[in-house]
Amino acid sequence: MGKIARVILDSPLPSLDKVFDYAISDELQQALVPGVRVRVPFGRSKQKVDGYVVEIADSSDFVGKLAQLSEMVSPLPILPSNLYRLLRALADRQASTLGDLLSTAVAQRFVRVEKAALSATAQVANSPAQAKLEAMLANPTLVDSYFVANKLPQWVEALLGAAMKTLEAGFSAIVLVPDYRDQDRVKEAILGSAMAESLVDFSSEQTGSARYAAYLKCLTKGAHLVVGSRSAAYAPLQNLGLIAMFDDGDRNFQDQQSPYLHTRDTALVRQSVDNCSMLFVSHARSTEVQRLVDLGFLQEIDSEFTPPKVAFDETTARVSTLAWQAIREGLETGVVLVQVSSRGVARTAYCEGCSTRALCNRCHGPIWIDAKSMPRCRWCNAQNLAFSCPDCKSSKLKQGYGGATRTAAEFGTSFAGVQIIESSGDHNVLEVSGKNKIVIATPGAEPKVAEGYSRVIIIDAKHALNRDSLRASEDAVREWSNAIAK
User: Fold this and answer.
1) What average pLDDT does range 332-355 have in this prediction?
2) pLDDT > 70 fraction of the chain, expressed in percent and rounded
3) Are 25 and 68 in contact (CB under 8 A)?
4) Cα 485 from chain centroid?
5) Cα dihedral 35, 37, 39, 44 sign
6) Phi, psi of 483 (to 5 degrees)
C-alpha cells in the first residue's frame, strides 16, 4: 500500500472541519509534500473540492476503500506546518472552523506570481533558543534615530531596534501596526535604513498579486522583516524570531468577521506555536497587556522620559480661553492639532431644558439635527417635530457638540487668515507642513507633521469619557496619548 495524504478542505462548513484521508496516486507519490494545495474528490458526486495536505502518513484508520488524490494544484507548500498549527489552535480557541481562517491567512493564488517563485530556495524551519516577552511604554516625542538621518517617533525606533537585533541573529520578524498611516511611517524608516532589502510589505492596500508575492517571499530562505496589520500575523515565516506590535488597543486590530479575532490574541497564540519573542509598544497600555504584565507573563521595559506638558480646565465652554491662547501661540511656530471625538456636522440632539439625550417618539432611537435643521431619528429616520422630553416636558432641542466638519467651519470664522485643514475617515490628509495652520482631526486620522505639532488641543474630552462603551475611559486615554505623542 502506498502513502496516505491527510487533507483539510477549504470549506467553512462545521461538518467538514476535520482531516480526511486520501490514497495518493502513483504519479504523485514522490511529489506530494505537506502544505501543498490539492483538489480532491468528495461526497457521492465525487465533485472536486480545494484542500491542503497537512500530513503524509504510512497508513489510515479509515475502514473501507479510500478515494484517490490525483490532482496537485501547485508544488509549493503554501500552508507550512507551523501556520496550520496556528490556525487549528485559533479555530479551537474561538469555537470556529479552520475554513473560516484559511481565506484570511492564505493569500489568493496567482499563477503568474507562483511560477516566478518556483525556483526560489525554501526556508528551513527553525526558532530562537530563548524568547523574550516584553511590554514598553514609548516616549511620546520624536527622538534621534539610529537608522535614518531625521528624527523618528520613539515607538518606531523601538520596533526597528528590536527587529534589527532579530535580523542580525538570522531570524525573521513581524511588525504589526494598526493602519496604513503607521505602516507608511514604519516602511519609510525601513527603506532608509540597512534593513531595506529585508522588507516584506504585507499591507492590505496592495493588489492581490502583490500580496501573494509577499506571501511566497516569506517562504523563501533568508531573514525577512514583515510589516502589516491584521493579516501580517499569519505571514508563513519558518524562522520567526520576533512579533512586535504597536498600539494593540486600536480598533483596527479587531476583526469584524467570524471568528472575530483580535490580532493581539493571534500574535500571542503564534508566539506559543513558534516560540518567538514578543514585544508590545504603545503610548497607553491596553487592559489586556497590563494584565499580562501584572501576571508576570510580560516583562515591563523601563522607558523613562520627561512627561509632556499638559494643561486642562473644567469650564463649560467647548473651547476655553486657555485653549484659544495655546492655539494662538502654536500658530506662530508651526501646525496646531485640534482633536475632536467624531466626524461630520453634528451629533445627537439633547433636551434644551435638562440636557437629556433626545429619543425618537416612534422607536426610541437617538435624534439628530440634519442639514435642514430637521430633527430626525438615526434608527428609523422619522421626523420628530412633536418632540417632548419625558423628564422635563420641554419641547425644545439643542445640538450636541459638532464633529470635525462643524468644528472646522467654526474655527474658520474665528481664525481669519489661518488655513483650516480637516482630516477624518471620510477626508484623509496624510501630511501637513509649514506653519500658521490648524488641523481639525478625529482620533487616528491626524496627518503627519515632520517636526511634530507645536500644540495639541483635545476638545470634547468629557464626551469621549461618556461613550456607550465599557472601554470608554481606556479608549479615550489611548486616543489622547497618541495625539499628544504627535
Assistant:
1) 84
2) 99
3) yes
4) 19
5) positive
6) -70, -45
